[in-house]
Amino acid sequence: MAESEKPKPPESPTTARELDFDDEHHEHTASPAQPQVNDSSKPGFVEDAAPPKPPRPAKPNPVKQAENTLKEAFPSTDIAVIKAVLRASGGNVEPAFNALLGLVHRPNV
User: pTM of whole model > 0.85?
Assistant: First the structure.
């Protein structure tokens, strides 16, 4: 028998047919599916999805914070006056404080 006439060994069942990598077609019967159990105590456990992040705390409104600071310093002064003085001082607490201090503590002459 010549070398070119040697019988080929039989192909294995996995290489006898063309491989199909498309997930849409499953012509062969698969082994029964095992139920997937999410057990976080097992090593190598990976959570499917991370939990949503908690909302960030709201940043305080600087104008409202300045109004509250001045209201604490001058509790007997009307809030409308405090807002007007704060607006006139460009939203800066220190000049507004000095202006309110001059309004509230006028010496009786």
Answer: no
